[in-house]
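Re: that chain you flagged

S.,

Sorry for the slow reply, it's been a week of failed gels. I finally had a moment to sit down with the sequence you sent. For the record, here it is as I used it:
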Amino acid sequence: MGGSLWISHGATEAVFRGRSFITVLPLALLLPTVRVSAQLIGSPLDCKTCVCASNIVSCSKMNLTNVPTHLPEYTAVLDLSFNTITRLRAEWTPVPLSRLHSLLLSHNSLTFLSSEAFANVKKLQYLDLSSNCIRQLDELIFEPLEHLEVLLLYSNRISQIDRTAFSGLNSLQRLYLSHNQISRFPLELVKERSRLDSLRLLDVSSNRIKALSLNELQALPAWIKNGLYFHNNPLPCSCEVHEMVARWYLKELSSATDFRGSHTCVLPGQQKEKIAILDLNKVFLNCSEVTAMDRKAFLEQFLILDCDTRERNMTKSWVLPGNIPVPPAYKTALMRPEDGSLQIGPLNVEDSGVYTCYATSESFNETLYVTVMVFNSTESGGLENLKTAYTTLIGCLFSLVMVLIYLYLTPCRSACCPGQGLEKSDPRDSLHSSTVSISHAHVETGQERGDGGGFANKHGAFLQPKDQLEQNGRLNPIGEEDEEWQGDNRERRRSDAESVSSACSDTPMVV
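Prediction finished late last night. Pasting the structure tokens below so you have them in one place:
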């Protein structure tokens, strides 16, 4: 009996031990799951290890692999930098943190960002995701952050950015994307129709961008270009790139002046040698030197002068050449209130000169000078001048043709024309009268000389046949020997000689 009782007691103890083992075994199996869940979800916030100062929670350099749970709802600043967090899931904060405005996750090992990671922190203004291992930015990933002003994504491995990744960031002012693997310039962020309206700094330096839309970048307002950093990218060298960077440098834009030596380009060739963009006009391409831009215009044109300041929303005023302020009712100069530009025209030559724009704000003052040169012609003046030249040439040719027709085709009505006046017996109408030289002394004496057997008054000498070729190199038009004078020894009148001489002025006078 006692033995049986002992056996029953032993059996009962064995059964109890078996049940205990069966009960403990599932608990032991659940321990890894609990540990994994703790790693995925994170442990509750411990203000003994983290710093909890009022509304600031700092768990920097705590070797955390996940975001702590049970964060106070009044948290305004959360610092989780310098840890080993790899994934930012949607459930990292199950309750909304409506007062959180700064989240620091730099220097972790982030490779994944959930599309709903920021659904419960919509009031964020400052987000630091720099120095991680993020490779891509999916569509609409930052859309809930409509109040975000600063986004730091530099020093990651980003190579793909969806065009809608930054949609909804209506308050974003500064975006840092430097030191990544980006190969496309995000022009949609600064382009007129699709740009983020408040964005004033975009840093895409030290990436893999090989092409820029130069014309569209040049057309941007100065307050955007002043904060557009694209240095240290493998851009191919060209005079167009040199011209754009040089103009930004002359305008003293911070993006060009602060990193003057870092604006480099790659020379063609196998060695891929880099050179400073501003030295292209001296070393390689011999690009033209860029000077300050002046505005050129023509008569009767209208011209708009931009007061393109380096800051936005400044108070602007204009002064005309001669230091004359623009009056409100000025006829040829009107300041446009929407952008502060000045419209002048219709232009006259007197409108040439230096126009000055004074821009002021609470923290910054800027003065811009625009030199206007008005040419004394219309915009199509070159074509009109060419037409005028052709018209003048045609008029000259026509006049020359008319002169030739007059000289050679018009019937000769003069007594000295060839073939005329041979039948006339009056010696005063003879061609030879053109060779008569009136001598006042002989006219006054009127005496005959008989010893030479010559004419009575001997008023002129007649050409001999052998001398006919000596008259301007031409033969005597009549082709005959000189005729003797007929009639009595009366004097020829002076008026007759003068009239004949004037009628044939091209015949030389022989004395």
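What I noticed first: The chain is about 20% helix and 15% strand.

Talk soon,
D.
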